[in-house]
Specification:
- 33% of the residues lie in helices and 20% in strands.
- Strands 1, 2, 3, 4, 5, 10, 11, 12, 13 and 14 form a 10-stranded mixed beta sheet that branches.
- It is built from 13 helices and 14 strands.
- Helix 1 packs across helix 3 and helix 4 crosses helix 13.
- The chain is α+β, with helices and mostly antiparallel strands and 402 residues long.
């Protein structure tokens, strides 16, 4: 990508991740991302400086028109700000950042805010038969989370967990492998939380939640799931979630439903100099890939090498830290196996199994987390990868300038 104009990340922020029906459940996806536009404040720019917004959001039913536009308006960005909502399932937040970088490189804008948001707690149920007038008998109530977020839209239309089970069988990953991975990632996230590694100027921006019925407001400062005690014995005893007899994927070795948002501020080199900004990182390149829908679990192993090539990085060994989104423990394990990666470089502060996976947010959340990891380990090159329903994945390489 050396022949293309450079794009810099000058600020990053994310909300704490709230548990399903937990601490952030009273806030809509648009409000969550409005809170996350603290990234603009951290950048030193004025809201009027932002020209364009790209935000990922997967389950947009009942949110109103264009959630990205709502976020921008609520955050006092000017009416002239161009706003686009992106849906690439779990890769939406990262795809939004890629689109933001491409917009700057093509000269269409010089300052872009990009990220993603999801409030899984507020996704409605649907009554699809009512539109045509249900005449007789019982009506089906469809769960919007499953229909638009967690269910394969192809073939037998099974939940994503069945694809995770197929991945485990294909790559020889046992229930014990997945449980032990889940335990390690939870411990890493708990340690990072206790040490304040998420409470930095590149990650968590505390969220104020209004009190109900006259009660005082509360401030949420930490990822809700990371505060829960780890019960190893219970984790290992939970029944399989998808295949009752002999299944390996369980609720605790998969990512939990959750709420949250994340955003970065991207600028051109000209804007960087004009406003006297200090960059956090430079976007070196990206890559995307797709295969059969049921194989989405291992698509990051295809996208990551493409991102490295696009970035001009010689190989995996030149990367100091990776963030591979943990849709399931088996996703991280299978992609590490396919790429030949050691866990000592992957998800060093824990991942989605421990923190949560708000679908439209996660692709941006892992970029925010990677910035913090590179700062902590004094690394230079980092890479993120996230699979998405339908068989795809997106990846990005950044160079830390901290």
């Amino acid at each position: 990508m050396s022949s293309l104009p450079p794009v810099y990340i000058i600020a990053s922020a994310r909300t704490p991740l709230g548990a399903f029906q937990g601490s952030l459940s009273s806030l809509t996806a648009a409000v969550k991302l409005m809170e996350c536009l603290a990234a603009v404040q951290r950048s030193g720019l004025k809201p009027d400086d932002v020209e364009e917004v790209f935000f990922g959001n997967v389950m947009s039913a009942n949110l109103g028109q264009n959630p990205a536009r709502q976020c921008a308006i609520h955050a006092s960005l000017p009416p002239s700000t161009v706003c686009t909502t992106v849906n690439k399932v779990c890769a939406s937040g990262l795809k939004a950042i890629i689109l933001g970088a491409q917009t700057i490189q093509t000269g269409s804008a010089s300052i872009v805010v990009a990220g993603g948001t999801e409030s899984m707690s507020n996704v409605p149920h649907y009554l699809p038969q009512l539109r045509s007038g249900h005449k007789y008998g019982s009506a089906e109530l469809v769960d919007g989370i499953n229909k638009d977020g967690l269910m394969n839209a192809y073939g037998e239309k099974e939940l994503m967990g069945f694809a995770a089970e197929e991945c485990a069988r294909e790559h020889g990953l046992t229930r014990d492998d997945q449980d032990e991975y889940a335990i390690r990632t939870i411990k890493k996230a708990q340690e990072a939380t206790q040490k304040g590694l998420f409470a930095t100027d590149v990650e968590i921006a505390p969220v104020t939640v209004p009190g109900a019925r006259g009660k005082p407001a509360t401030t949420v400062e930490k990822d809700e799931k990371a505060l829960l005690p780890l019960n190893v014995e219970k984790l290992k005893s939970i029944r399989p979630a998808f295949v009752p007899n002999g299944g390996t994927v369980t609720a605790p070795n998969a990512s939990p439903l959750s709420d949250g948002a994340a955003a970065v501020v991207l600028v051109s080199e000209e804007a960087l100099k004009k406003h006297g900004l200090t960059p956090l990182a430079k976007i070196r390149g990206w890559g995307e890939a797709a295969q059969e829908p049921v194989k989405f679990t291992t698509a990051p192993a295809l996208a990551i090498p493409k991102a490295l090539k696009h970035a001009g990085v010689g190989g995996l060994g030149e990367v100091d830290a990776f963030e591979i989104n943990e849709a399931f423990s088996v996703v991280a394990l299978a992609n590490m196996k396919l790429l030949g990666l050691g866990e000592e470089k992957v998800n060093l502060h824990g991942g989605a199994v421990a923190l949560g996976h708000p679908l439209g947010c996660s692709g941006a959340r892992i970029v925010s987390t990677l910035l913090g990891v590179l700062k902590e380990v004094k690394g230079k090159i980092g890479c993120v990868g996230v699979c998405n329903g339908g068989g795809g994945a997106s990846a990005m390489v950044i160079e830390s300038l901290l």
